[in-house]
Design a protein that fits this description.
single chain; alpha/beta; 20% helix; globular
């Protein structure tokens, strides 16, 4: 009888998971590396075809030449600090989990504190309203562990470097180059795992949001 109950609960659990994954709505919030806006003076990415499928090769093989800060990518503390953590040194749970999408409108809307397992905040509207040092202080004081923005860089103008150092100095990685155009503010599940590149200060990522309701 006990075994039956355990097996029954196991089946119900997997049926629940199948229902969730079958009905969930996904948002691809990544920018294409080859077609994204570039930071000034960045060399455009190139795909070099090393071999085509022909009589001499059964495979197509290509090489990618691109700045690690191209497209949707993650900045690690090593980006601003010589002794900072590289991208492989940051726990993966910083890029996977519940997150909140907040729309910036220039009115100084207060950032709610991290709660209920939500430790990641993604800012929408950063191209029009870049993050300031005060915004970063709200992120740190609010208890968030990861920040994302929908511009090619966090901050702008003279404040860009200040914002980078503030967040990365607090050990908060920054996801830049997100595409949040079709995402309404709210709570989601984020997957934005970085490509594993030892010794790198940044890495490409494929960022996806999953609706939770």
């Amino acid at each position: 009888m006990l075994l039956f109950l355990r097996e029954g609960r196991f089946v119900i659990f997997w049926l629940f998971l199948l229902h969730v994954f079958w009905t969930m709505k996904l948002f691809d919030i990544s920018c294409d590396i080859m077609h994204s806006r570039l930071y000034p003076d960045t060399v455009p990415p190139r795909v070099v075809v090393l071999s085509e499928i022909d009589a001499s090769s059964p495979y197509r093989v290509s090489s990618l030449c691109a700045d690690l800060h191209t497209g949707t990518h993650i900045d690690a503390p090593l980006h601003c600090f010589p002794d900072g953590k590289g991208i492989v040194d940051i726990p993966l749970d910083r890029f996977w989990g519940r997150c909140i999408v907040v729309e910036r409108n220039g009115c100084g809307t207060p950032l709610p504190p991290a709660s209920d397992g939500v430790g990641i905040v993604l800012f929408k509207g950063c191209r029009e309203f870049p993050l300031s040092e005060a915004d970063c202080r709200s992120v740190v004081d609010g208890g968030y562990c990861t920040v994302g923005c929908d511009d090619i860089t966090v901050g702008a103008g003279d404040g860009e470097y200040v914002v980078h150092r503030f967040l990365l100095g607090a050990g908060i990685p920054v996801i830049e180059g997100l595409c949040l155009r079709d995402v309404v503010p709210g709570v989601y599940w984020l997957s934005a795992l970085p490509v594993k590149i030892d010794g790198a200060e940044a890495s490409f990522c494929r960022a996806v949001l999953m609706a939770l309701d």
